[in-house]
Write a structure and sequence with these properties.
The complex is a heterodimer of chains A (520) and B (135). Chain A is mainly α and 520 residues long. Chain A has 21 helices and 2 strands. Chain A starts with a helix and ends with a helix. Chain B is of the alpha/beta class and 135 residues long. Chain B has 5 helices and 5 strands. A 5-stranded parallel β-sheet of chain B has the order 3-2-1-4-5, sandwiched between helices. In chain B, helix 3 runs parallel beside helix 5. The chains are: A mainly alpha (520), B alpha/beta (135).
Chain lengths: 520, 135
């Protein structure tokens, strides 16, 4: 059943035009993945207005390419520069950069690329198998259950992404607030519009996303342009040896096993599985002395986890309409832009589109494997572009895109104002992703809450009426309280040596994070 | 104390310039100031020395027996400005730079750093071309 649908998807995705868009997507995605500070979420947001003229299938295939390409590109920068392009690559940087410094850069890049391919292919296959089954379950989900799921996504994303749960929650609230602006769908009342007629339709998602990601990042980079350059390490040395293969394949599979479930759960992206995979490989390795000095397992595992979770994130997006990463949120906004509402009915109403999207993930993954290794030199050259030119281009594109959405000059004012907000968030370490997810998922969650309350005549107990919502809300509570409790408990019991080691690891991650921030 | 300033990049033309600058500094019994600057605006600048390359340069300068100084300014200014600055500040009596072949179109598009240096710097400038077999 699913296989037949998937083959139909391949038939749609393998047209010359769609292949071209897939190629464009993976090239763009890798390019932005390589450049620190510019992620797939920002790129998809920038391209959104330009793609409204395209067929939805072509546009989504391109976005899927960007999404996967960003993951591959991030690993290249982590390994050769020790500058993770995005937060999910931080673990790769730990061992990968050491390997490159020891003259084994080629092997590190190869195990990352092949591991990404293996994990991506397995995880996409799992996505194709799981999605139809999950849709069967999801179709029975009530509005109250849906609201509970949204709450879980909010809390998990906010407490996991970024340097502290408080900052994540604050960013989330900011996004929820921005999502409130406009006319209330149920009562027709205007909210937070300040009497400005243009705001009664709400602030366009494209404008907010572009402002927070692109303008905020550009201002931040401009504020610290004189920080000097970093050293790029030659990707020299022999390719993967027999021994490298032998040491890599198990971490690839284990990484996939970590990455996919974490991607499926609304637990916010790829940071946790990459960290878990790294820790596991460190424990299981037969060469513990190599860890910290360039162990190939430490590259293979986290890279596989990273890509597997990227595919996992698409499961809640396509089956429930719940985005759990910034890029997924923007892709959801793209669906809405084409008049498609993601949710349990998506697979039935837009079946061919979804299957073409999944098929294009396979194609994009294969393209990335072929493209990535021979083109490493080219990707590294991208890093030599003077940043003023790069960001001037991004700002031009951001302004054009924001203006093009409604052809309204007011959008440019909003773009600048929110861009300043984005700069402040970047400066003070507030993660942007929860804000974007709050903005896009907020209104959907609100509609479901209001409908549930309308059905129950305002009786709040409807929210915990079914076992499904009780469990989900309990999980949300756990995600909120868990880290705090865990910290309190651990604070009493940990030995000084453990604390030292944990702090050392924290510092490594922190350093990497501070250098380039927690992008999307 | 006289001073010789040299602009250094890790290429053949930088090497040629450095060799001649070492000769000139010996001849004049001068302090050799090696300038290796970066605008610092790109994330990666392969002409900016770091790590092993920087250590190799230090070793080489020590081996030459001269009194030397290496400057690596990153202030967002281009190489012509940095060199002119270094010459003015040290009251240099000679500046040595490496030259490369640029086509007319290339010069039109990219400008010529050498030309700007010649016009901006007050002291005599020694332009060293890359030996043809190394280019």
């Amino acid at each position: 059943m699913a296989i037949a649908d998937l083959l139909g998807g391949f038939a749609d995705a393998l047209t010359p035009v769609n292949l071209l868009f897939a190629l464009l997507g993976v090239l763009l995605g890798t390019a932005v993945g390589v450049l620190p500070g510019i992620g797939p979420a920002m790129t998809v947001a920038l391209l959104l207005p330009a793609t409204y003229v395209l067929e939805p299938t072509s546009a989504l295939i391109m976005f899927a390419g960007i999404y996967y390409g960003g993951m591959y590109g991030g690993s290249t920068t982590s390994i050769l520069l020790n500058t993770p392009g995005e937060s999910a690559s931080i673990m790769t940087a730990l061992e990968g950069n050491k390997m490159a410094k020891a003259g084994r850069g080629s092997a590190a890049l190869a195990t990352a690329a092949i591991g990404s391919f293996v994990a991506g292919t397995i995880a996409t296959l799992l996505l194709a198998l799981v999605a139809p089954t999950l849709v069967q379950v999801a179709i029975n989900v009530t509005t109250a259950d849906y609201f509970a799921l949204a709450v879980l996504a909010f809390v998990a994303v906010a407490s996991v992404l970024g340097s502290s749960p408080l900052r994540g929650l604050a960013a989330l609230c900011l996004g929820l607030y921005l999502g409130l602006v406009g006319t209330d769908v149920l009562s027709g009342q205007e909210r937070f519009t300040l009497g400005i007629p243009q705001l009664s339709d709400g602030i366009d998602v494209v404008v907010v996303a572009v402002a927070l990601f692109a303008v905020g990042e550009a201002l931040y980079v401009a504020s610290r342009l004189r920080k000097g350059s970093v050293q790029v390490i030659d990707h020299k040395g022999s390719w993967m040896t027999r021994d490298d293969w032998r040491r890599s394949w198990k971490p690839w599979l284990r990484g996939t096993a970590y990455g996919f479930p974490f991607g499926v759960m609304p637990a916010g992206g790829a940071e946790i599985p990459t960290f878990l995979s790294y820790a596991t490989e460190k424990k299981l390795t037969k060469h513990p002395e190599e860890f910290g000095h360039g162990a190939i397992e430490g590259v293979a595992g986290p890279e596989a986890a990273n890509n597997a979770s990227a595919a996992g994130v698409l499961v809640p997006l396509l089956t429930l309409g719940i985005p759990t990463s910034a890029t997924a949120a923007i892709i959801l906004a793209a669906f809405q832009g084409y008049g498609i509402q993601p949710g349990p009915t998506l697979l039935t109403t837009e079946g061919p589109l979804v299957w073409a999207l999944i098929a294009s993930l396979f194609i994009g993954n294969a393209m990335l494997l072929v493209l990535n290794l021979p083109l490493v030199g080219l990707w590294v050259k991208l890093l030599r572009i003077p940043r003023p030119y790069l960001y001037a281009g991004i700002l031009t594109f951001a302004s054009l895109g924001s203006f093009a959405v409604n052809a309204d000059p007011l959008d440019l004012v909003i773009l600048l104002a929110l861009g300043l907000l984005g700069f402040a968030m970047r400066r003070f370490g507030w993660p942007v992703a929860p804000a974007v997810i709050g903005l896009i998922l907020g209104p959907i969650a609100e509609t479901n809450l209001r409908r549930a309350l309308a059905i129950s005549d305002g009786d709040l107990s409807v929210l915990v009426d079914s076992w499904f919502s009780r469990v989900v809300l309990a999980l949300a509570l756990l995600a909120l309280v868990g880290p705090v409790v865990l910290r309190a408990v651990r604070g009493r019991r940990a030995t000084p040596a453990e604390v030292d080691q944990a702090q050392e690891e924290d510092r490594e991650v922190q350093k990497a994070a501070n250098r380039e921030g927690w992008g999307a | 104390m006289s001073v010789v300033v040299v602009g250094y990049v890790p290429h053949a033309r930088g090497r040629a310039a450095l060799e001649h600058a070492v000769l000139e500094a010996h001849r004049r019994d001068a302090l050799l100031v090696v300038v290796n600057s970066s605008r610092g605006d790109a994330l990666v600048d392969e002409e900016f020395l770091r790590g092993d390359q920087l250590r190799a340069l230090h070793d080489e300068l020590t081996a030459s027996g001269l009194r030397t100084e290496v400057r690596q300014p990153v202030r967002g200014r281009d190489v012509a400005e940095e060199l002119a600055d270094a010459c003015r500040e040290t009251d240099a009596e000679l500046l040595v730079i490496g030259l490369r072949k640029r086509s007319a179109v290339g010069k039109l598009l990219m400008g010529s750093a050498a030309q700007r240096i010649l016009l901006d710097v007050d002291c005599p400038v020694l332009g060293v071309k890359t030996p043809p077999h190394e280019a």
